[in-house]
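Changelog-adjacent note: as of this version, every example in the card shows the full chain rather than a window. The one below runs 442 residues end to end.
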Amino acid sequence: MPVRVPGVFTHRYVCQLARQPSKGFEVLEEAGLQDLSFEAIIVRYPDEFSEQAVQAAQARLEGKLFVPQTPPHQEPTPTCDAAARNYLHGYNDPTIWYRTNWLPRYRTTTEAIAADLDRDDLNEPFEIIWRRADNNIAGAGQGLLSFDAVDALRQELLQVIRDIHDDGSPARFAHVVARFEAWKEQGRINKVPRLLIARAFAALHPDRYHTTVDASSQDRILTWFAQHTGHHVPHSDNWAVRAEALTTHLDRLGVFGGDIHVRNIFPWFVLDQLRRPTTAVSAGHTPRPTEAFADLPASQRVIALRHNRIQSVLFHQLEAEYGVGNVWTEYPTGTGGFADAYVSRADGRCIVFEIKVADTASQIVRQAMGQLLEYSFREGGLEPVQLVAVGEPALDEVTGAFLERLRIDFNLDIDYLQITLPDMVERTEGDISDNSVRQPDH
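Full-length structure tokens:
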């Protein structure tokens, strides 16, 4: 039979004691009969009660006030829904700008800062953190202080670097902001550069903070992470509190292989995807590498580099046709990818272009179609009026007939555009002339 004690069963009993002793306990205490109290029973049989109940009972028997500790919030195990997985898939593409351009510069910069701090040489970190508009960690935009103010505060700003290096906690972030607020009240600066302060924390402690250092931008992505990965957003207006919570959450997702630099750029990737529908980046084209991609296998590198050359030729051709300011390359689709080229028409509608490197137009269309459809019609996509697959081979008759059927029978306006690189002899298939290539509608 189970062993019983007064009022206690052999299963673990969870209870709470009020902070103040009851009248009954006080009567027993005055009579010297504390051993008969419920508190004494709890202490006598600690395995039958919760740890907090035992601590409270012991404190009361010793005449101490027990103040229960609020357990820290523990997020449930994070999981990525379909939208988050799609974003991660797009982010893992080794040929995107984030990987080929930003990531190596960001990694090199933070490692150089760490090495300088180890030598107590703060001259270069000072320039990187307080004076550079784009320091490979985060762009400052209009957030920079005047150079005169920075030079006048040089010694104080050097000390800020030391202080952040010694203590990168969110509490230190609040203290640093307060220091700048005091300088503003004294008339030494004309604004409190919160973005610069956040960027300093991200530069000195990449292990703790991601690269989306603008508070309003961070707030926008936090909503997305809460919705799609189960992130618990802290109730705090301190950028560092919210940023550290997000990086901790991203680590718990376990999808970045322990690479903090790859982890820290992902929130900005999400931001670019989210802000595309309303505040797209300025039109234009930043040429991508034509002699790089060292991390790719040789066969993939050849394809990636040729893709970049085609993209540059395509951009200039489209800009000549549709006008300056109406053509983008690497345009965020809102679905986790980037359209190779995007044209905004005069009527407000758009055309989406996808480049592929292959030997035949049939292969180009086959490879491009899935991405074109996803970028265009997946939830949050671009909703273009026209889709265009782009490649070097001439359009063959069979593929042309296939595209025509899609337009007529399925009302899917998908086309093919041939691009010839300047140093290449034109590629053809059969006897189909270039005039057979249907140009995108204006």
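Structural remarks: Residues 298-436 form a domain with the Trna Endonuclease; Chain: A, domain 1 fold (CATH 3.40.1350.10).
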